[in-house]
Design goal:
heterodimer, A: mainly alpha, 2 domains, 9 helices, elongated, B: alpha/beta, Glutathione S-transferase Yfyf (Class Pi), Chain A, domain 2, Rossmann fold, four-stranded parallel β-sheet, 15 helices, 8 strands
Chain lengths: 162, 300
């Protein structure tokens, strides 16, 4: 089975069917990203249906996951959920933006996608808060749990540069 | 209402601690029992983690929920992103025994087990359903003479099948909470549009993200408001830090102050602007700050 037939299979198994799409374009017309970017949701769905390659389509990563297309779809197709599934398949193929790799590394390192910085530490003190919040960055044990979970899920391997 | 644990999330605690202080002070004044969630990690950020690997997303999210389960408290979030990540994970794990079993296999390695015994809440949803705008008004000591552009953000209301807060095109519940403070929620073009930050777009495609933001800012500017109010620190960051980046990129001169609802409510409850961290934003609008201090001192 080709990679693209595999895509349809995975989507179907996840309960994400798009065969009832009638190409009305409501999704694309409603897309806040598509107004200014190349993201064309309707076309992505069409490509999936036609077993055309979609995982390499970089526009998949221009979706802000606002769910407007999914809410407005007259056929009730879970469009945003489909885009998220396509992204996960793309990541498995090693297709990932370097900036997103960096966010993954931050969570592996600090347990937080946005770790504490010096400026915020000072702002916290000004407010009378503990300079370091009571989170995984405060507790080596909690941070180790997070890292163990990420390793168990092989997230470090998944997001490592290939 | 069940007792709560406070899941503040990375951006509040590590970028906008004023929202943390504001939230804690407001909850205290409203007599809502909410305590820290010790050892919490990133929710993890739904836009990126949910886009990368479902198993990893569910494992990290469930670990945060399990800490709250052990405390026998519902999880209270103050961020649409944290809410989306934790509430959606909770829904999936409660409804899918196979996913739950798989997630628990991962959690076993850190001595934890997800039970599915608590709920995940959002502060706006909580204030609206548990207290309501009418009762909230009785707590207000300093009615706010402010015009506000309200930004709901996407994941508080969508997907509507999971959120149970009504339809997502013209909701009013959040406006009612804003108006309970005495402020006026001013309608504006594309009010329900995304700020452009979510889905990993701000991290991965900053130029495109700022283009979406510029559109929102232009619409808000035309509405002639004192400030933007949100209920999501990631939208807050996009509106605040992003606004300066927009000015640089487009040659504009936006200077629209940005408040999280906890900060707006805090002002109405008589808490000093200083304690609410309103001056700690990147956007420094002195005219607005003067107005806020005057309102706070009861001379406006």
């Amino acid at each position: 089975m080709s990679e693209d037939e595999e895509v349809v299979k995975v989507l179907k198994a996840a309960g994400l069917d798009m065969l009832s799409c009638m190409h009305c374009g409501t999704c694309t017309g409603s897309c806040p990203s598509g107004r200014t970017t190349g993201l064309n949701t309707r076309r992505i769905l069409r490509d999936v249906r036609k077993n055309r390659p979609v995982l390499e389509n970089k526009d998949l990563w221009l979706c802000t996951t606002c769910y407007t297309c999914q809410e407005r779809c007259p056929r009730g197709i879970k469009i945003t959920d489909i885009l998220l599934e396509l992204r996960r398949l793309a990541v498995r193929e090693g297709l990932m933006l370097p900036e997103h790799r960096r966010v993954s590394e931050l969570v592996l390192e600090y347990g937080h996608a946005v770790p504490l910085d010096e400026e915020t530490r000072k702002k916290r003190e000004e407010l009378g808060l503990d300079p370091v919040p009571n989170t995984a960055q405060h507790s080596p044990e909690a941070l180790e749990q997070v890292r163990t979970l990420l390793r168990t899920c092989r997230f470090d391997e998944l997001t490592a540069e290939k | 209402m069940k007792k709560l644990s406070l899941f503040l999330g990375c951006i509040v605690q590590n970028r906008y601690p004023g929202i943390e202080n504001a939230t804690k002070l407001c909850l205290q004044q409203l007599d809502i029992d909410a305590v820290d969630l010790p050892g919490a990690s990133c929710c993890p950020a739904p836009g990126v983690f949910k886009s990368f690997d479902k198993g990893t997303w569910l494992s990290l999210a469930s670990r945060n929920i399990v800490i709250s389960e052990k405390m026998e408290r519902d999880v209270l979030t103050v961020c649409n992103g944290c809410y989306a990540s934790l509430a959606d994970a909770n829904i999936e794990l409660k409804s899918d025994p196979e996913l739950k079993a798989h997630t628990n296999m991962c959690l076993k390695g850190v001595g934890m087990e997800y039970q599915g015994t608590v709920e995940v809440r959002h502060i706006i949803e909580l204030l609206y359903t548990e207290i309501g705008p009418e009762k909230l008004k009785t707590y207000v000591t300093t009615p706010l003479n402010l015009k506000v552009a309200l930004h709901y953000g996407c994941h508080m209301v969508k997907p509507t099948k999971d959120r149970k807060l009504g339809e997502s095109e013209t909701p009013t519940f959040f406006d009612e909470l804003v108006e309970a403070t005495g402020a006026e929620s001013v309608d504006y073009t594309d009010k329900m549009m995304c700020c452009g930050a979510g889905g990993g777009v701000r991290a991965g495609h900053i130029e495109e993200s700022l283009e979406m933001l510029e559109h929102k800012l232009a619409c808000i500017q035309r509405a002639g408001v004192d400030c933007i109010v949100n209920a999501c620190p990631f939208c807050h960051l996009q509106f605040d830090k992003g606004q300066l980046a927009v000015n640089e990129k487009f040659g504009t001169d936006y200077s629209i102050p940005v408040l999280h609802y906890s900060q707006l409510l805090g002002l109405a409850l008589g808490i000093s602007p200083e304690k609410l961290g309103i001056e700690q934003n990147d956007v420094q609008n002195l005219e607005f700050l003067a107005k806020v201090y005057e309102i706070s001192a009861g001379i406006r």
